[in-house]
Design goal:
Elements: H1 7-14, H2 18-26, E1 33-35, E2 38-40, H3 43-53
Antiparallel strand pairs: 1-2
Helix pairs in contact: 1-2
Length: 67
């Protein structure tokens, strides 16, 4: 059985509030696994959220001209 994360564990891993994760669950932004009333989240979802939000850095102005 895979290691599943609780909502507080998921929030800690991403450094966001529990309310934020609960909102994502409600809005269906993240995939969840429900066991009765319990909500569990796959660790791969954490990685997906990070990759989805990753924004590449812009090169600094003048970095090409300065040699």
């Amino acid at each position: 059985m895979p290691n599943l994360m609780t909502i507080p564990e998921f929030a800690d891993a991403l450094h966001v509030t529990i309310a934020c994760v609960r909102r994502w669950v409600f809005e269906r932004r993240i995939n969840t696994i429900r066991v009765g009333r319990l909500v569990r989240i796959s660790p791969q979802e954490c990685q997906r959220i990070v990759e989805q939000g990753l924004v590449p850095a812009r090169p600094q102005r003048g970095a090409q001209n300065a040699k």
